[in-house]
Amino acid sequence: MSTKFNKTGLIDNETRKADSYLTSQLLKHLNPNKNGLYLDVGCGTGNYSNALQGKGFQFVGIDPSIELLQKALSKNQNIKWKVGSAEKTNLPQHSFDGIIATLTIHHWKNLTRAFSELHYILKPEGNIVIFTSTPQQIKGYWLNHYFPKMMEDSMQQMPTLEAIEEAMHTSGIKMTSTETYSVKPNLEDQFLYCGKKNPELYFDDSIRHGISSFNDLANIKDVKTGLLALKKDIDSGKIDETIKSYDNDFGDYLYIIGKKTGA
Q1: Cα–Cα distance, 136 to 175 (Å, whole number)
Q2: What is the 8-class DSSP label of residue 115?
Q3: In what order do the strands lie in the sheet containing 80-83?
Q4: Average pLDDT for residues 22-36, to the nearest whole number?
Q5: Phi and psi of 160, rounded to 5°?
Q6: What is the largest CA-CA distance in the chain?
Q7: 199-213 burial, b if ≥16 CB within 10 A, otherwise e?
Q8: Backbone region of residue 14 per phi and psi (left: phi > 0; alpha: psi in -120 to 50; beta: other values)
Q9: Cβ neighbours for 218, distance < 8 A, ≥ 6 positions apart
């Protein structure tokens, strides 16, 4: 994970909180039990690990960034925070009853290797829940109208659903279902498309700084140009027409639910 992304998580963590609805959906798909042990892959500063542990479930958080894990530890010392990646967890075989990964799969360098590793540490019949967005979904964001280069780069780094399913299958994890998520106006976690219904959010420096696409992928000049055009369209009312032109049925994000098959 890049230094920029580390700084994103550390400096502007207040804009990135565990959303209550997304947390409830993670619980629904993970279907955990109070006696089990669960892993949050790419946990960052631990927002969702904390939220789920707060519901009475035992979690371990793993992330390649020591800086982010230090932040996570400062918030909750009752969770074990470990340095590692999806491809190399250094965790024992069959040690987890389930796994979650929220908005992190695009940082995995090798999908097949990552899912093979997760298969190794997952108990038989254990569930894995991934929350992500696909290139097809990102193409439907109205942000493309104002920040075309940034959004193109965002699409390029996201694995397709087909690539994810193939890697899961190759690794012995069956994709059992998917569920789309469309951004709600009261979203508490200010990630990339948080301003879908509220474009003014993107004028907030702290919100942009908490979004890796703006920090890691975007050119400062392009962001300023895009924000000026966005403000002009908001002031004129043209923004409504632009947003409407991006209406689609793909959803904004996607839950991918899998189950380990075999031993």
Answers
A1: 19
A2: H
A3: 80-83, 58-63, 37-41, 96-102, 122-132, 253-260, 173-181
A4: 97
A5: -75, 160
A6: 60
A7: beebeeeebbebbbb
A8: alpha
A9: 147, 149, 150
Q: Does residue 153 contact residue 212 with C-beta atoms inside 8 Å?
A: no
Name the burial class of residue 163, with classes exposed (0-12), middle (13-18) and buried (19+) by CB atoms within 10 angstroms of its CB: middle
Q: Is the dihedral of CA 18, 148, 229, 197 positive or negative?
A: negative
What the block records as the tokens of 79 is: 């969770």
pLDDT bucket at 261, cuts 50 / 70 / 90: confident
In terms of residue numbers, what domain contains 182? 3-260
Q: Is the pTM of this model over 0.90?
A: yes
Q: Which residue has the tokens 């992330």?
A: 63
Pairing between strand 122-132 and 80-83? Answer: unpaired
Domain count, the chain: 1
In the structure encoding, which two tokens stand for residue 27, read together?
């619980």
* CATH number for 65: 3.40.50.150
pLDDT(75) > 80: yes
Using the CB atoms, write b or e for 11-49: b if 16+ within 10 Å. Answer: ebbebbbbbeebbebbbebbebeeebebbbbbbbbbbbb
Place of tokens 């920090």: 215
Distance CA 41, CA 90 (A): 12
User: Quick check: 127 pLDDT over 80?
Assistant: yes
H or E stretch including 125? strand 122-132
- What size, in residues, is the chain? 263
